[in-house]
Design goal:
The complex is a heterodimer.
Chain A lengths: L10 E4 L7 E4 L24 E4 L12 H5 L20 E2 L13 E7 L11 E3 L2 E5 L4 E6 L5 E6 L18 E3 L2 E5 L4 E6 L5 E6 L14 E3 L2 E5 L10 E6 L5 E6 L29 E3 L4 E5 L21 E5 L6 E6 L14 E8 L2 E9 L4 E6 L5 E6 L7 E3 L5 E3 L28 E3 L4 E8 L3 E4 L13 E4 L1 H4 L4 E8 L5 E7 L8 E3 L3 E5 L4 E6 L5 E6 L9 E5 L2 E8 L20 E6 L3
Parallel strand pairs in A: 4-34
Antiparallel strand pairs in A: 1-2, 2-3, 3-9, 5-40, 6-7, 7-8, 8-9, 10-11, 11-12, 12-13, 14-15, 15-16, 16-17, 18-19, 19-20, 20-21, 22-23, 23-24, 24-25, 26-27, 28-29, 29-32, 30-31, 32-33, 34-35, 35-36, 36-37, 38-39, 39-40
Chain B lengths: L1 H15 L4 H6 L2 H15 L27 H10 L16 H14 L4
Helix pairs in contact in B: 3-5, 4-5
Classes of the chains: A mainly beta, B mainly alpha.
Chain lengths: ~600, ~110
């Protein structure tokens, strides 16, 4: 479905309460003249889903070009990438919020999404404008200093979406004068960043076959890199590069081998054809070496590996890729022959680490399987893996980085062995971590919720879930699950401190140069922690459970921190949370008093 | 005697309702186990759950049926799917065809909450 704004049917409306804000309504019947009738007799309101903007907005910063994207970590007035910068540190240069004054943070403005389900956005900020995506693929352009709405688009999509894990979206990318949002029905849509008019739209894949897209694209050079979800549907995973200007596909990197290609030998029979390995999170880019890094998720079916004996490449892997043609340079697989749903696609950080007196250009990742990995960024060589969760028993890691699995952890038909971590992690790709390079600490929100793993008979049906079993959330049932945000020494992999919470911690993290870490919890609080010690500095009850990715920025000379709350009952079956709090996304933006 | 037996059989059928292909599977522990394994491997996971939840796919063990609760209606829902939802037709999709659907019917109805 396409929803352009047809000029012939365009109608100009004026938003009540938005001074001189003129919005253009598309794809709906022409407005009737004012009728002198009662409300009972009035015609039903048209189904409006696109409000564009035709007035001058922003500060006149011009297009967001590659220089902006490369300098992203240095400019406090912008938040341009999901990971804050190409290295994914989510570390803002803002230094005026400190452990000494964080307790003074107050609400500056707030904004409702009007949607239920998980609100996982990492807002994008540029030219004084904030772009917020929501569950069900709404996107808003707001004044970053006041929250005033500029334009809005509600993506219309089918009722029979193929989703494993909710109607989520984690943010819009910005490139030039476009902002780009991936959708649950597996499309990529580019909007003019000032008007909200759709510039182009392309289909990544047929959603009815099990595909969807939830992550923020990564802009590299003149391309938007976006990966696909569908690991619970037996899809053939991939990530794509699209020409930002036109939406044309430049290249596709399949994460599963095709007939005759290397890697098929790691799958029994032709099971690689339905092997999943989705690419549903945002990768990283090293502009100095011109290498793109992307990660992959679980093999399909999730919890019954009987028909896919072998390592199942390239599931649960880190892939290094030439960004100009999508060709793979090397790979490292975290969890071969995964039967726990330990997607290997939690946030990767590009960073330098100290080892035996030497500086090594590395990638570190708190993997969903409970281990904190350090790899050589140039070669993918394994350097170390340390435990970052408090409970782990599914495997140890040998000197080559390969798991040595406890056979009791394998799924069976009548399970009675409590496996740690559970299928959600550990950390999970649906939320972000942060890294403070000055302190050498990575901040990792973590779930502690062990499970039984049960397998059953499974048959592949295109477009249908292909999971082969289920996790039994025994810790949820017993009230034993909990969470923490852990600070991990990136040089040693050791845990320096933990901030513990009664519920699994499933919101993203933000680090700031002022020495404050922001996150949220399932009880609906925004939290500020001392980056060096983990001491709780401030909290504010926003309402619904927090699943969003906090960001910080400056606008009109003032510093702001944005965090969204929303709650979600679905997830409580796997990681407990207060389900009595109603769902409903709400973005809160905080600042220090004058 | 023959008349008596026929009358008794007629009364029995009337009292118990029409027979269903699921009846034989309900009486067979191995069939129930296979029905359970099919449910765990194909129907559960992130869709239908084995404990009550708020997921989109309904919980099936509470005796609340959105598309009819007779054996045949449950069979038809599985076989034909539910238009406009992700519940697609499973007829011809399971390893042992209709028999596997009847085993699912037998398991779901046997395991229903009291």
């Amino acid at each position: 479905m396409r929803y352009p704004v047809p000029a012939a049917t365009a109608v100009l409306l004026t938003l009540v309460g938005c001074e001189q804000a003129t919005v253009e309504q598309g794809d709906s019947p022409p407005a009737e003249p004012p009728a002198e009738t009662t409300a009972v007799e009035a015609a039903p309101a048209p189904d409006i889903h696109h409000w564009t903007n035709d007035r001058k907005i922003g500060r006149g910063d011009g297009p967001a070009n590659n220089e902006h994207l490369l300098r992203a970590p240095l400019n406090p007035e912008q938040w341009l990438h999901y990971g804050g910068d190409y290295a994914n540190h989510r570390h803002s240069p803002i230094d005026d919020i400190t452990p000494g004054n964080a307790a003074n943070l107050k609400v500056a403005w707030a904004f409702p999404t009007g949607t239920s389900e998980q609100f996982e956005v990492s807002p994008t900020v540029y030219d004084g404008i904030m772009y917020v995506t929501t569950s069900f693929n709404r996107i808003f352009a707001l004044d970053a200093a006041t929250g005033e709405i500029y334009w809005r688009y509600d993506h219309q999509q089918p009722e029979d979406l193929r989703l494993c894990c909710g109607y989520v979206n984690r943010g819009a990318a910005i490139a030039g004068d476009l902002v780009l949002m991936a959708t649950l029905d597996a499309k990529l849509i580019a909007f003019n960043r000032l008007t909200g008019v759709v510039a182009w739209e392309t289909t990544l894949a047929d959603y009815a076959k099990g595909f969807s897209a939830t992550s923020m694209p990564l802009i590299v050079k003149d391309m938007a890199i976006i990966g696909i979800a569908g690991g619970e549907f037996g899809v053939r995973g991939f990530f794509d590069a699209y020409d930002v200007a036109t939406g044309e596909l430049r290249w596709r990197h399949y994460t599963l081998p095709a007939d005759g290609e290397p890697g098929t030998e790691t799958w029994a029979g032709d099971s690689y054809k339905t092997g999943g390995a989705p690419a549903w999170t945002t990768g990283a880019y090293d502009p100095e070496t011109d290498i793109l890094y992307w990660t992959t998720g679980n093999p399909s079916p999730d919890w019954n590996g009987d028909l896919r004996a072998g390592d199942n490449l390239y599931s649960n892997s880190l892939l290094a890729v030439n960004p100009d043609n999508g060709e793979r340079l090397w790979h490292f697989q975290f969890t071969p022959h995964d039967v726990w749903d330990y997607d290997g696609n939690t946030q990767i950080f590009l960073t330098d680490v100290q080892r035996e007196g030497e500086t090594v250009e590395a990638i570190v990742q708190a993997n969903r399987n409970g281990y904190f990995y350090t790899l050589d960024r140039a070669t993918g060589a394994f350097m170390s893996a340390t435990q970052y969760v408090e409970q782990i028993n599914w495997a140890t890691i040998d000197d080559n980085g390969r798991p040595v699995v406890d056979p009791r952890a394998n799924p069976v038909e009548e399970p009675d062995f409590r496996v740690c971590p559970g299928n959600l992690g550990g950390m999970n790709g649906a939320f972000s971590g942060a890294l403070n390079p000055d302190l050498g600490l990575a901040y990792i929100p973590t779930i502690e919720s062990c499970q039984y793993f049960q397998k059953g008979i499974v048959a592949f049906v295109e477009g249908q879930p292909f999971m082969g079993g289920l996790p039994i959330a025994v810790d949820v049932t017993n009230g034993a699950d909990y969470g923490h945000l852990s600070a991990i020494d990136i040089h040693t992999g050791e845990v320096r401190w933990r901030y513990k919470d009664p519920e699994p911690m499933m919101a993203g993290a933000l680090s700031t140069a002022g020495g404050v870490v922001f996150t949220g919890n399932r009880d609906g609080f925004a939290l500020a922690l001392d980056a060096a010690t983990g001491e709780l500095l401030w909290k504010f009850r926003m309402g619904g459970g927090v699943r969003s990715q906090p960001v910080a920025y400056r606008a009109d000379g003032k510093t702001y921190v944005a965090i969204g709350s929303g709650n979600d009952r679905n997830i409580a079956g796997f990681a407990a949370g207060p389900v009595a709090i109603p769902e409903g996304g709400h973005l809160f933006v905080f600042s220090l008093p004058e | 005697m023959r008349t008596t037996l026929l009358v008794a059989l007629a009364i029995s059928v009337a009292a118990c309702g029409p027979t269903s292909p699921a009846d034989a599977f309900r009486a067979d522990p191995e069939a129930i186990q296979r029905g359970k394994s099919l449910f765990v491997g194909t129907c559960a996971g992130y869709c239908h759950t084995t404990v009550p939840s708020d997921r989109d796919a309904p919980y099936l063990f509470d005796r609340v049926w959105q598309h009819g609760g007779t054996d045949q209606e449950i069979f038809d829902t599985i076989a034909d799917g539910v238009p406009g939802t992700t519940m697609i037709p499973f007829k011809g999709k399971l390893p042992q065809g209709d028999d596997d659907i009847w085993r699912l019917v037998a398991y779901i109805t046997t395991a229903a909450d009291d």
